[in-house]
């Protein structure tokens, strides 16, 4: 018998389930997604589940279950089942779907914290950190910057200078799998029943960190590449791992591109500390580009605001605005189409 409370089940979720059409069926949490097959952790064990036809063909890709989702399913045989419903998502980490203007891809749901993992080698990129952080904050998830491979030689002062504008938004930790005390410190950030997702580029050591936190080889890892001296990408899927005496970890494949899927582009100013200056601009609708009396531009000229941070803010804002506008138009078209379908059905019914 599995105690689902250790996987994040609670009274609030139970109340939500009692309002569902299939409240008398079993429930569980999606731990791995294999295209059309889902591994679901339930009270009676691990089940291999498929979707009903209504779910598979009646929902968009974004609405289909992802790792972390709580689902209701009909068990059959010893370890098989069919997913018939899904509880409404909360705190879902998303990104813009690759190759689209407005589509979203769900990475993991019911996430409490996100470890943004960066390697303290040539792969460190503060611009990537900003990109992950703003999307994580958008979903009301708590970000923690995990600077991995702290056993390597690196310029700590330079790193801290690059991330100082982010330190007020998230905890910054230096860790290494070769320094057990740093892994202990990282583990202390995970409370019992909490779900933590690890995000970052390929080769930064996410899977190795999961294994170190678990104290065992829970996930497959690769050796350091002899040609580049960097870790090689191992994870090919999102996978949930239970941390003994603590919470749940979700490892994710490394990403080359993490497109923003923000519904509120104006929130970026607060996330990147631009709002500290923007509040003093002459005009309330100041775009901080070339307006007179712009306190943001003044802060750049006197050196109190980094020009690189400002440029990153403008780039992310343009991307977020583009997504938000495109998503609005997409929803508008979907509503118009749904209305048209309803009218056609009504006409047929009246014949």
Would you mind describing this structure in some detail?
The protein has about 350 residues and is α/β, with parallel strands linked by helices. It has 3 domains: about 5-85, OB fold (Dihydrolipoamide Acetyltransferase, E2P) (Beta Barrel), CATH 2.40.50.140; about 95-250, P-loop containing nucleotide triphosphate hydrolases (Rossmann fold), CATH 3.40.50; about 265-345, Probable gtpase engc, domain 3 (Ribonucleotide Reductase Protein R1, domain 1), CATH 1.10.40. The protein contains 10 helices and 13 strands. The protein has helices spanning about 10-20, 55-60, 125-140, 155-165, 180-185, 205-215, 270, 275-280, 295-300, 305-350, and strands at about 25-35, 35-40, 45-50, 70-75, 80-85, 95, 105-110, 115-120, 140-150, 170-175, 195-200, 240, 250. It has a 6-stranded mixed sheet, sandwiched between helices. A 5-stranded mixed beta barrel has the order 1-2-3-5-4. A two-stranded antiparallel ribbon has the order 6-7. Strand 2 and strand 3 form a beta hairpin. The termini are far apart. Mean pLDDT is about 85; it is low at about 220-235.
